[in-house]
Amino acid sequence: MSTERNSQSGPERADNPIEPISTPAELAASVADSGRVVILFYAEWCEPCRTIMPIVEQFAADTSVTVFGVDVEANPVLAEIADVERLPTIVAYTDGIEQDRIEGVCSAKELARLVF
Predict the structure, then answer these.
(1) Per CATH, which fold does 16-115 belong to?
(2) Does 106 participate in catalysis according to the annotation?
(3) Residue tagged active-site, from 21, 37, 38, 46
(4) Which of 62, 45, 60 has the alpha carbon at shortest distance from 92?
(5) pTM of the prediction?
(6) Measured between alpha carbons, how far is 32 from 4 in angstroms, rounded to an integer?
(7) Burial class (CB in 10 A: 0-12, 13-18, 19+), 2
(8) Among 37, 39, 49, 102, which one carries the catalytic annotation?
(9) Contact in structure between 88 and 48 (CB atoms under 8 Å)
(10) Mean pLDDT, to the nearest integer, of 21-35?
(11) pLDDT band for position 35 (cuts 50, 70, 90)
(12) What distance in Å separates the CA atoms of residue 113 and residue 25, rounded to the nearest whole number?
């Protein structure tokens, strides 16, 4: 890995399986996807977010579930739309309907239970 890639911790890294969302239209389209979708709401400065990021990245790489990421500092309106009050927050949707959410750090098993 290059130093440049290591310096980035958010979903905007080229090798990251988490797809970034930055507009209300992208958020709406992502939530409306058929099937299961997971959205991670995070901020770069958030230590718990940095802790959970590798867990979510591995989950995204290992499953067929589409995983999106929202940097709430860069896109605060998206956190408001999704009623996110704590970071990190992971929200699971099925066929456009919120099924469950986890606020704070979770384990890989807890993340899998959220979705499956």
Answers:
(1) Glutaredoxin (3.40.30)
(2) no
(3) 46
(4) 60
(5) 0.86
(6) 34
(7) exposed
(8) 49
(9) yes
(10) 92
(11) confident
(12) 28
